[in-house]
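Supplementary notes for students who missed Thursday's class. We covered one full example, reproduced here. Read the sequence, then the structure, then the short commentary at the end.
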Amino acid sequence: MSKLQAKIIADFGEQWTQYPDSEGFFGSVDLFNDIFHPLLSARDVAGARVAEIGAGNGRFVNILAAAGAAHVIAVEPSDALRVLRDNTRAFSDRITYLEVTGDRLPPSADLDYVFIIGVLHHIPEPDPVVAASFRALKRGGALAVWLYGREGNSLYLFVARLLWGMTRRLPHRTLALFVAALYPLFWCYMTACRWLPLPLAAYMRRVMRPLTPAKRRLVIYDQLNPAYAKYYTRAEAHDVLARQGFTDIRLHHRHGYSWTVMGTRP
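Structure (token representation):
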């Protein structure tokens, strides 16, 4: 494992240990459906065998289990595994917990779905993870991925790149204080998006406004903390699945700023 990958895993382990809960819209089936609509909804996993790579604090594992998944494999390589276990205890009889990186998902060839939600863009070499997902799926099974998008994010990336050089070096407590200081500016921008056609206005209205203030601050923290993040073009989002043999690849430009991608194992 490279030093960069180890740091990314450690950073997310600390993040989900410090922010373990998934209150409100942040951990809701409505958010899950917003991420995957129109390609998939939570009801599609009823009775299915599924896996989530990079399960974090377990918010989507809970959604998959509550939606009726027959079994969920929760893959989480960081120290957040303890939080994941605690938060998903109600469904633990239908969950297998794996403290491994995504490229080590067992090649069972019996899964109906593999989910990678907000994780693949933090993996410098994603191909082994996508290949492992392919091997774990049965024929006709699908990989569902949500990725940061490059299209629609020009202004945001300009601002973020000015901050990343500093924020990626900050310890947790200092970064949390910085986010708290930044939040009033964010709130003003989010509020202005209710009436003005500003960049990311749809995302602000449909995703950020329903969150609690604490979870909005967590989203900001999540953007500023990771040591690595790639913003995918449409072609790159398609090709990361196509390279490993996925077919029937469908893409949705979610709220004009990110990519939801699904591909099928033939």
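Commentary. The first strand starts at residue 49 and ends at 53. The CA atoms of residues 109 and 136 lie 4 Å apart. If anything here is unclear, bring it to office hours.
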